[in-house]
Amino acid sequence: MLYRSKLTNADLIEHLKNLIPDKSCKIYCDSAEPGKIKELKTAGFYALESRKNVKEGIDFVKRQEIYTRDENVNLNKELEEYVWKKNSKGELLDEPVHYNNHLMDALRYAIYSRKESGIPNIRIIYW
To answer: What dihedral angle (degrees, nearest 10) is formed by the CA atoms of 64, 66, 31, 51?
Structure first.
């Protein structure tokens, strides 16, 4: 819905007012950004700190059914380009390469945080 960099918190809030008119919708935020979370809450959004256990989160997301549309160009590109590190023998390691994974991180924040909140049977469809 919004794929931009270098937005100020004020700019982000203005965009979110149009994109998420129902402020009761949960927004899972990067827990490394407590100031941003506080500003979103002050603006009336239901902003929550995400659960960021990368390994467990990725493992959980891999077990989910995720559907996306062709119009979700950036997410689809990240899904296609998501790669795993390799050791010196070329064998895959159980650790992702940190490259072009902004939406993948956001997807993990939302899905894994909802799971950690006790919400079962997550099925994500991105419009």
So the answer is: -10
User: Residue 104 — φ and ψ, nearest 5°?
Assistant: -65, -40
CA distance 26 to 47: 6
pLDDT digits (tens, 9 = 90+) for 4-47: 889 999 999 999 999 998 888 889 898 889 999 999 999 999 99
Closest among 43, 79, 44 to 62, alpha carbons compared: 79
Distance from C-alpha of 74 to C-alpha of 18, rounded to nearest angstrom: 20
Helix extents (H) in the chain: 9-19, 34-42, 54-62, 73-81, 102-116
Residue showing tokens 């050791």 = 87
